Amino acid sequence: MPTPLERSHHATSIGQFLEESAELYAGKNAFSCGPMQLGYSEFAQQGEAFAAYLQSVGIKKGDRVALMTPNIPAFPIATLGILKSGAIQVNINPQYTPSELEHQLNDSDAETLIVFGGSSASFAAIKDKCPIKRVIVVNLGDGTTMDIPSPAADPAITDFVRFSDALTTGAELEFRPVAISRDDLAFLQYTGGTTGPSKGAMLTHGNILSNAAQTYEVFHDVTREAEEVIVTAIPMYHIFALTVNFLIYAGCGAHNVLITNPRDMGGFVASIKDSRFTVITGVNTLYAGLMTHPDFVNVDFSNLKACVNGGTAALQATSDKWQSITGLPLIQGYGLSETSPVLILALASERTFTGKIGQACPDTDIKLLDDADNEVPVGERGELVTKGPQVTKGYYNQPEVSANAFTSDGYFRTGDIAIVDAEGNYQIVDRKKDMVIVSGFNVYPNDVEQVAAKCDGIIECACIGVPDEKTGEAVKLFAVKAADSAVTEADIIAHCREYLTPYKVPKSVAFIDVVPKSAVGKMLRRELRNT
Q1: What DSSP designation does 246 have?
Q2: What are the tens digits of pLDDT across the range 9-59?
Q3: By mean pLDDT, which of 128-142, 170-184, 378-392, 430-444 is the weakest?
Q4: Does the reported pTM lie above 0.85?
Q5: Does 121 fall in a domain?
Q6: Bridge partner list, 517
Q7: Domain that holds residue 454
Q8: Which of 331, 357, 386 represents a domain boundary (last residue)?
Q9: Is there a single domain that holds both residue 132 and residue 255?
Q10: Mean pLDDT, to the nearest integer, of 234-240?
Q11: How far apart are CA 364 and CA 414, in angstroms?
């Protein structure tokens, strides 16, 4: 029997990789979500049925299909169906506001949207401003044997197909195999920018499968086929959970415990209490939040082998408290949407919190560069740049931006400042970009500033990240208001809530006389850190 590492090396597509897993682990539970269960055999059958349905309505290789759901069984089923059909999956945050959704649908040229009923209002508000021609609405229990009460589709969406009906229809159709290679696109993974709207990182089947192989090599000492139970509370539309929790762990026959609403700490704890989970991934905020629940100390940690923190740095205090309860520290990794995502990962066998993010994954070349693109000595700060089979070729329909994202010798610029010690252990110490990280989610100042600047009474504004005990960083907005304006902090925050996902909304607003700029008029956000 080939190992997951061998299969990730040799598979020509993600669909093939997942279907081989389903065959190897037939009869085992693949996903659970509250009372819902989905076995590996059922997962493969449902995925093929959905692929057949997509073919029947005209979806062909290279078409973009947008997927906008929380962590529910329909997500992995839809993903397998989309990728098996040869289409490209566009992952969308189900909490997006109408304006955020409008940009992503238009930028990706997606004509099909699979959307959770509870998230459909955002689409309803912009349905006539985007290229979507086909809407498929998902309920909580779709793909399983359970009928779970679910939010209805927004009444303004009158022409749609239910995901459950698509599966039923597809099961009666013959799927026509599609030739897919490792060089074909699998995902458009959207990531923001400091100088413009979010852009879609193009990730191929080979990018993802290579990253699976790299991660298996690092974690092989603690990974047992068909024995792992992984907790997935971070959203699968995010590259971290998409690749690591879903695709990599499905490849080794793991049971994936999906958490649909991690903010419901009571429900979260109840879902994992007796699951005997072996691995959990998350961000510092999630780990800290779990420990506030009184019943968390009664969770069964007897099988726990690895607690992986990503997205943003873990705090020593959080790790220490976590270890006092679970017996294990938080270990860290590092990556980006553009790198599928894992570049650097600590060994799961670590038993003390180091604050470092580990060593470069196999087949991953990393350099630290100064401002002149010269490599810095060990122990010196430099921008982390990288080459490897997991690195994107660029951004969808943005050749100039893509070219600027790489050094002259082909290394991808991460925008993060790091140091490395003599043993090859990396630590992120700063960001070259002005990005803010709130609970592991990237917030790009330009996104916030464009919205805030449209608030009545604001002349100009700029935002930065400031330390926050709960979320790691929080967004702080600096605003210059018109001389006759009576606009308040509350007014600006309320305005931003209308157009921005909650984690992007400024937590505080400070009024200033002028936004600092360079001689050529470039905004100098860093100067605001001392304001």
Answers
A1: I
A2: 999 999 999 999 999 999 999 999 999 999 999 999 999 999 999 999 999
A3: 430-444
A4: yes
A5: yes
A6: 523
A7: 436-530
A8: 331
A9: yes
A10: 95
A11: 14
